[in-house]
Structure prediction request, 637 residues.
Amino acid sequence: MTNSNLKILKDLNPSQKQAVLNLSGPSLIIAGAGAGKTKTLTYKVINLIANKIEPSSIVVLTFTNKAALEMKDRIQKLLKTKNLPFIGTFHGFALKILRVEAKNLGYKKNFSIFDEGESITLVKKAINNLNLANFRNSANSVYKKISFYKNKGVDNENYLPASLKDIYLEYEKLLLEHNAFDFDNLILKTLEILKKYPEILKKYQKKYSYFLIDEFQDTNSPQYQLIKLLASKNKNITVVGDDWQSIYGFRSADYRILLNFQKDWPQAKIFFLEQNYRSTQNILDASYSVISKNIFRTDKKLFTTNGKGELIKVLKFKDEREEALWIKEQIIKKLKSGKSLNDFAILFRTNVQSRVFEDLLISEKIPYQLIGAFKFYQRKEIQDIVSYLRYIYNPNDKISLERIINIPKRKIGESTIKILKDNDWNFEVLKNKPVFKQLENFNFLIRKLESASRELPMSSFLTFIIDSLNYKNYLDITTEEGLERWQNIKELIGIAYNFDRFSPKEGFENFLESISLLQEADNFDKNANKLTLMTLHSAKGLEFPIIFIPGVEESLIPHEKSLYNQENLEEERRLFYVGMTRAKQELYLTYAEERFLNGEYRHNEPSRFLDEIDENLKENFDITEVELDYEQKIEYF
DNA sequence: AGAAGATAGCTTTTT
DNA sequence: GCTATCTTCT
Prediction:
């Protein structure tokens, strides 16, 4: 063991240290909320490298790109080396293999990755091809169902409900025709290749000998199958997770994979990380008294040296407006006593709940950030330009072609597009029509852009496209909307600058890859002096000194769609647990007697989860009888 | 090609 | 009851 390595170990508690020192063989690290999961994983990677394990043979898998970036940062700082392991998402890792091996399944190497929107368009096409009139308006839900089944990891389409099977098969056929993968197929097709070609499997088993997986409780079956296969030779697989925090069952994540880990890997060593560094003892005890009502779980008891802290505050309001007003007042009061806006987060079960807070915060001019609201890459103007890139890169991508052929307007109308669609986009069929001139011009433009793609660095190439299209003019920046869209385009160019260090060809490929996989610009900025609003789901992995959870009511949390099913109910409880354990110092749980929801006033009972908190850990307040004085002018901002 | 009319869906969300 | 999306009308 090296000296630098010893120095690092001093930062760890005994159980973390044991987990980090255990280098080879299967290992399961069950870690509670705030117990230093990611830190332990990061240090284990560093320890592996310190023990002369070749970085390129190590694969670290995280739940999001953002988590991957953060870990990369941490490792780079501690190691001061450029030679890093693969650190990324399952999808990113699968893509790395597919770039080399997709040809085995009949894909060309310039394949595309279809995002959700493009995939839905393709499902629509499948439905039209099959003439299934009663599915005409349900491409969205059909796509979601297909995706759910794919993620279950059932590799036989006969398991699909009969009504979906035909659409599924047609959709898969279309994907191949478009030379494209949807998100799910990145994983599934990689798995298929490794199963089908033993020599390819061997190659990657040799190449990658250490696997470490974060947030293992939210892994789904195909993802696990993929890593299980690759790790089966060397058996160096480390997983870190907390079954109590598994909250993505609705998209086929399965925490039982974590609970069954020892069955699959009988030699596995188990480590429990139970010391919490985040919250007060009261918050830990209160959240434990809730989560302990779940039957399907491991048992562990978290502790902290942080002291008892304040009691959990449970408050009752007349309606959601009063609830929001009170929370806002409370925040302002605390700001005056020295807290700052980024000490607070308001966490809710459903996105619609953010509305009442947004209205209030806007009128009071309180700066806030709403996480997961508008998605940069789903904006029309971004998709327009990205579709040009995709079509230039992969001419089989007719979904992108259809999107751009008349943007900006070039007099290629609906009827023309219909004819082209019916003829596999063969422009020649319109040879004798006046519109053919327009089509030829379009082809000429694409050829011009394509040759530019081979010569220019990424940001210049992008600027060249935008100029050639006269896109700024098309957006009409004299309108407020147009100006905002133009600013988004400039942001896209800004992102492209990061790819200028590559050759034109590589830069283009990497840029496309990164905007396909990095859907959400990570818009949460913990340093911004803003109040944070987000769903309980997006709060996973984060922490704040003071947490408000509004709407702690039956039919919100637990959500009404999960009330009558034990499995779903337990997931709701875990979700609530995740919310509670985000708090470092203070936790406010609020509910209203009446709430405007789905167009009607509804009366909800207080959530059963409130009853599950031990009486001696909470204080109840009834604010329905108190006259609130909201008129006082706030001069704070 | 854009506006008006019709209809579905309405929990959570990353890739 | 609101909104996003698709269809049909002008």
In short: The CA atoms of residues 55 and 85 of chain A lie 5 Å apart. The first strand of chain A starts at residue 27 and ends at 31. The first helix of chain A runs from residue 3 to 9. Residues 631-637 of chain A have pLDDT under 50 and may be disordered.
